Amino acid sequence: MFLNALEHMMRKKLILIIGILSVCYLLLFWRGIASVDPQGLQADSGIPTTDADMAYAALSIAGSMLSVMVWGLTIILGASILPDEMEAGRMSIWAALPQSRFKVYASTSLAPLLVSVIFGYLLFGLTALITSFYAPFTPTSIPLAIVSMPVWLSATWAFVIFFSQIAGKIPAMLITFILEGFAVGMGNIVELAKGVPDLHESTFYTVARIVTFVLPFERGYRSVQMGLLPEASMIEEALAFMGLGGALPLWEIIYPAAWAALLFFLGYRLFMKKDL
Amino acid sequence: MMNRAIRVEGVSKRFGKTQALAENFSIEVLKGQSLAILGANGAGKTTLMRAVLGLAVPDTGRISLYGLPPSDPDSRIGVRFLPERISFPKWATPLQMYRQFERVRREGREMEFIHRAEKLACGDLLERKLGKMSKGQRQRIAVALMTCGKPRTVFLDEPSSGLDPSGRMLVRSTVAELVDGGSTVVLNSHLLGEVEKVCDWAAFIHQGVLVTHDRLEDLSRFKGNVIIETPDPETMSNFLGGSGTVKGKSLAYPLPEEDGFAKLTERIANSGIEFTGIQLHKESLEDIFMRIMEGETDVS
Fold it and tell me: A84 in contact with B at a CB cutoff of 8 Å?
């Protein structure tokens, strides 16, 4: 059934469009970074610029854009198989085959997650690789980036799957987009507060922190970013003020995965009770 | 009972304010039976099928398929379901759909599907995308997908929907072939003439209530006359006292009681008048349907 779900998804024009957009992005990024002159940067700013700094800047800026692309992809793909099959009336055929409802649910919902994670790896990985051609650098922790990718995306994916069981495909996508945007904004506040100690005392910070717990969409992303960013960069601290740096404790990385597992299970409970 | 394919016991199912299956709905289907589920639109026929397959969760009661609850995937081994409205992905060809089904059910061989498709006169469509087929072509493919091989039980919800007369005939012969092959068939169709030809049993449902469930031949009532096929109906009519209505090469002779049939047959046989057939005129399935749906429930 998992293979069936993958086959259904790979046949969608959406995947082709996303593939073309991704290639366009990578080519533009390649062209952009190839045109940067490190000596020119140093002369303009008057600050010595290392390869690591250049890589840091490139990955930070590209990372923000990539995160939106991969988030969007996860939301759209997440809503593309399970809710689609239900709305098309095909779920009854799959569920009438000799397989459990859990298998139907898990296969049709996990396939989009797998594709999103693969896209995430490809986009972030190729961006880092292209960067390393022009600004050789040593990533802080590749294993951290690899582990954080599915954790990050599973939180988004689980929300879409869960809401699709309550409200249907389009509302689930919209709700997740809105919640995600809100959570990312609050996550940036939390990161910013690392450089502004006074902010820790404010109610606003408390609210932002609570939101990042209830909607843990961007914790994993920050770990992906952190794992890929170069070691020994001089501009790391400066960028931290933009909410792009700073280490996360391990539990904050694992927590979204636990959240995703819970929502996945709750979605399954709803699916079990549905008349197909 | 080892011979039981389906058991529905005290089931009820409600969709919001609509009672799809009334309290204590119970029915049994034995292995190899061909059962027609009949009733008006909204009577609960499709809900019953879906409940048996585990697609609709009953509010009360118990259901078993080959002794297992519908929640057990093993209960659906060898079980096929053709829903009334089937929507295939447009990109897929029939062969791709077959392979997708077989990845899960692992019950048959591709040749069996190809043979079935050929029998349903859609063998030339197997490589064509389903999105580029007419409704009737897709329906033939759907029937082929769900009836190929040797299924244990087949649930067919309006299998002739959208088909032309030749397609209906082919579907009818497919169902007959399944029955002959020993499959249990549960058929939901409004085409009573076709149902009558392939099903031995019928269950009549009215507003979620099982009105009656019996063999078709036992449900059919005697209509008060005997049809005698003879080359000379006028002579036969005179021999029987001038009564009866001549219609072509047959005579409809009134018989007050069904019990008198044996005596009448003996009398005609000894008359020396040539005849080719004699039978009790009984209700067609359409007659039974109308009688039961008009509120008469005492059919036994």
Answer: no
